[in-house]
Amino acid sequence: MGGSFRLQGALLTVWFAASFGVVFFANDLQVIVNGWPLGYWFAAQGSVFIFIAIVALFAWLANKRDKAGAVIDPLYEAYKGRLHRKFALYVVCLLLFLAALALAEKWGLKKSWVGATFLIATVSLYAAIGIYGRTSDAAEYYVAGRNVPALYNGMATAADWMSAASFISMAGGLYLQGFSGTPAQPGGLVYVLGWTGGFCLLALLVAPYLRKLDLYTVPDYFGLRYGGRGPRMIAALSAVMCSFTYVVAQIYGVGLIASRLTGVQFEIGILLGLGGVLVCSFLGGMRAVTWTQVTQYVVLILAFLIPVSWLAYQQLGNPLAPFVYGQQLPKITALEQQLLASPAELEVTHEYARRARDYEVKLQNVEAALDHDRKDLRERIRLLNERHADESVVVLARRELAALPKDQVSARERWSHAMQENQERAKPLGGMPTHVKPFAGDPAGSAEEQQAFELTRRNFLALMFCLMVGTVGLPHLLTRFFTTRTVAEARTSVAWSLFFIALLYISAPALAVLVKFEVMSHLVGQNIDSLPAWIAQWAKVDPTLISVGDVNGDHILQFSELKLGADIVMLVTPELGGMPYVVSGLVAAGGLAAALSTADGLLLTIGNALAHDFFFRGENDQAGAVRRVMLSKFALLVVALVAAYTAAQRPADILYLVSASFSLAGAAFVPAMVLGVFWHRATALAATAGMVTGLGLTIYYIAINSIQVRAALGLTGSGLWFGILPVSAGVFGISAGTAVIVLVSLLSHPAASHEKPATLPDAIRL
What pLDDT is stored for residue 72 in this prediction? Predict the structure, then answer.
């Protein structure tokens, strides 16, 4: 066992150097190697390669040790052979389907029919698998009978993991935030590092140990390790909370894509996609979800790699985008410098600054400003009626009056948001940082620049920490490793998962760079009246996704006049690059697959937590198991409808919702989970106290720093601790939860501190 701990310690040291070490010294790693800034290359892909090597090496060495004397099961090998043949047939049929649609489009098939065909075909496929995989057996419903080979579990895990945030929003976040984001919004390459580096912790510290216990759900672990109902109930409640936050983001993505594919309203799009989710997870549980996710992975990875490869070939003559897009980085830097010196761009930023000042004046006396706006609009409408103005002009003025805030509270909230948005867009490049620069400010500059540098780097590190630790705690991800046949396959499955995930994650930075070059060099400078039709079409789906305004009145599109949301960059890539519409349909189908696959796993996790964990009383009879499965299905249906209603309100952008759920998961689960595995002394009382403290502190920090809460409580100034933004609230929750568990465990009675349930296998080596 000592050798195993030494191996884990050595690999964790390499992991820390490849993540936190590289980021901390990123500003010093600006040497150019083969055209790439070294720090950027490590953050965008070099560290990911190291993470894959860490997980694969650990799985190989640990499995080599465990397989001494192991007997090969010929029936299981034959089963895997049949799966390989079926999977190969599916991939061939999918490629033939894409080729047939491309030919049909070439021969005149309408775009609306192409989109509808993608939607109907893919959702029907997922529904068919759900119906075929229907079951009421507890082991099949909760963990797919623990019979999923490592390769396919890796694909299913990758699809489960690569949600709408990964597929739709990550490339957009990289487009908007460059390397590291801004002092007000950390991001950029932190998502690549955080969402891959977390798999090292998952492989080394959690997944194999939990698989040894033959669990059904993550809260099962807390009930088994600590005993009693307290830790289990808190774990179940936490699983519902963080999974619900996550699933709302996925259903929002489902509505966004389904409405674009079919042309229906956003809310109807949500219901269309939700039907596909429910058929899979409701009927067949993990058994159906697993094989649905395998098929969805192939769709989403093709949907991502084809456009980015197409753009790379178009711009650079080489389709291997992750390895060649570095050639565009110096070109983007040169274009950024041109835009920074452009007189037309300066006119736009000055106009945004003027608008921000107007809102600032209004906020000084909200009641008087709101009353003035109402009187002004009413007088304008009266004058228009007297002059018998065109009815469309009068209607527009009336709509403007109706759109005014109804009261002072809503006016303050709306105007505060508008002021902040205009202040942000009044900055150079519309508030976007230069793409390659590691952090804002300058460590060798003025005191203000040094502070901006430290703050940006600190928030980057904090968010990366939350994403990595949150990965370890996400219940829907952990449950996937309960489905493998053995512990060895669970380790191998983590390695396959990271490999399949990395195919997209090293391509997302490439896509962001290629799209930014396309926008800066070809879209910017066009006459606004002759802009491509897809801009207006996407604006109809949701105006927050994309907007264009002739701010300086020259009828020419300036870079700062184009606003792209993070959730739109990937979806418009085919149209931006002039690709056939069949590629647009494939991208939308891929985004739908990403959202549906994750929503399946999340809804299953929530339903199981509500039914299996909240109502579990220790009964293990067949009738009790069937009752819990049926209750899980009912709970899943109710939660899906509530989540759909919440998503229809458009609560926040996908990336923020998902990032917040990582903080919640990390604070709620990880300290008690990891200490429970590696420290005998951890007690049930300590775990309960630590989980409540960590989760409560995280929720408090997110809530107290929201604009709505601060406005309602009349709070002024910044509520940030050490300048850490609320998306990284898990930093405080995880730290506080760990400290409380250690302190309470040490203060507990010595005899009680060594108690553990007799049913806990000694193989976990607590």
Answer: 73
Q: Which residue has the tokens 């006459």?
A: 527
* pLDDT higher than threshold 60 for residue 78: yes
Dihedrals phi, psi of 378, to nearest 5 degrees: -65, -40
How confident is the model over 654-713, as pLDDT tens digits? Answer: 556 677 788 989 999 999 999 999 888 899 999 999 999 999 999 999 888 887 777 777
Q: Are 272 and 556 in contact (CB under 8 A)?
A: no
Q: Are 272 and 592 in contact (CB under 8 A)?
A: no
| SS3 label, residue 186 | strand
Whole-number Å distance between alpha carbons of 244 and 465: 22
- How far is the C-alpha of 164 from the C-alpha of 739, rounded, in Å? 34
Backbone angles phi and psi of 679, in degrees to 5:
-130, 115
Residues 592 and 677 in one domain: yes
Q: Is 527 helix (H, G, I), strand (E, B) or coil?
A: strand
Query: Tokens 């830790």 identify what position?
Result: 231
**Residue 431: CB partners within 8 Å, gap ≥ 6?**
182, 424, 425
Token look-up 């993540």 returns 19
Is residue 196 domain-shared with residue 296, that is, in the same domain? yes
Nearest to 709 by CA among 694, 726, 692: 726
SS (H, E, C) 550-594: CCCCCCECCHHHEEECCCCHHHHHHHHCCCCHHHHHHHHHHHHHH
Phi, psi for 581 (deg, rounded to 5):
-65, -25
| Residue range 544-555: mean pLDDT, rounded | 83
Amino acid at 236: A
Those residues whose C-beta lies under 8 Å from the C-beta of residue 193, and which sit 6 or more positions away, are: 19, 23, 43, 47, 48, 464, 467
Residues 424 and 474 in one domain: no
Asked whether 473 and 664 are in contact (CB, 8 A), the reply is: no
This prediction's pTM = 0.88
Give the pair of three-digit tokens for residue 328: 């565009």
Residue-level pLDDT at 261: 61
Q: Distance (Å, rounded) from C-alpha 741 to C-alpha 760? A: 20
Same domain, 585 and 723: yes
- Is 536 a domain residue? no
pLDDT digits (tens, 9 = 90+) for 259-300: 766 666 777 777 776 776 666 666 667 888 889 899 999 999
3-state class (DSSP) for residue 474: coil
Among candidate residues 28, 25, 43, 29, the one with its CA nearest the CA of residue 194 = 43
Domain membership of residue 85 (yes or no) is no
Name residue 182's beta-bridge partners.
185
3-state secondary structure of 563: strand
Q: What is the domain range of residue 601?
A: 2-71+110-327+450-518+578-764
Residues 392 and 345 in one domain: yes
Q: How many CB atoms sit inside 10 A of residue 693's CB?
A: 20
**335 lies in some domain:** no
- Shortest CA distance to 232 belongs to which of 620, 698, 740, 687? 687
**61 exposure class (CB count in 10 Å sphere: 0-12, 13-18, 19+):** middle
Q: Are the C-beta atoms of 690 and 740 separated by less than 8 Å?
A: yes
Cα 523 to the center of its chain, rounded Å? 28
Per-residue pLDDT tens over the stretch 143-202? 888 889 999 999 999 998 887 778 888 888 899 988 888 777 777 899 999 999 999 999
How many whole angstroms separate alpha carbon 482 and alpha carbon 218?
A: 9
Structure confidence by residue, pLDDT tens digits, 390-411: 777 777 778 887 877 888 888 8
Write down the mean pLDDT value for the chain.
Answer: 84
Q: Is residue 77 part of a domain?
A: no
User: Beta strands of 333-399 (E only): which ranges?
Assistant: none
